[in-house]
Structures are given as C-alpha cells and as structure tokens.
Amino acid sequence: MATSSVLSVRVNAKDEEILTKMAEASGSTKSKLVAEAIHNYVEMNEWYMQMIAERIEMANKGEFATDKEMQATYAKYGVDYKA
Questions:
Q1: 3-class SS at 50?
Q2: CA-based nearest residue to 35, from 52, 59, 19, 54
Q3: I need a surface site. Which of 18, 29, 81, 82 has the fewest CB within 10 A?
Q4: Residues in CB range of 67: below 8 A, 6 or more apart
C-alpha cells in the first residue's frame, strides 16, 4: 500500500464551487479529485522535465538532425523545408 501525506491548499471560491459539484456528480470527494489532479500534473511534468534534460544532453553532444534528415521528415508530411 502506498503511503500518503496530508497537504493543505487554498483555492479560489469559484474553483471550490466547481470542485464540489464535480465531486457530487462523480460520487467522489473533493480530496480524491484534487489528489488525482495533482498526481496527473506531477506525472506529466516529471516526464516533460526528463525529456528536456535528455534533449539538452543530446544538444550538448552535438546530436542534431542534418538538413537532409529534416528535408525527409518535412517531405513525409508534405511540407517544404527551407534551411
């Protein structure tokens, strides 16, 4: 079983009102909906930050696509490539 922590957050009144309606409509709780939203946000941004770090590392190594590779990729989608 995963451990969990308690976290207090402040939300504006409009968001809290909508969250209440969403929880009621889904048979869930506001806490569960907020926890799910935070999890999705963290998961997506963790992936994004990792991808950026990998791409920076590649760029630092000089690993770039050649003009010929770019032309082929653009041509695949029917777009003219101008270097």
A1: helix
A2: 19
A3: 82
A4: 81, 83
**Residue 1 DSSP SS3:** coil
In tens, the pLDDT along 9-19 reads 999 999 999 99
* Domain locations along the chain: 13-76
Contact between 55 and 42 under an 8 Å Cβ cutoff? The reply is no
d(CA 60, CA 52): 12
Q: Is the pTM of this model over 0.70?
A: no
33-63 pLDDT, tens per residue? Answer: 999 999 999 999 999 999 999 999 999 999 9
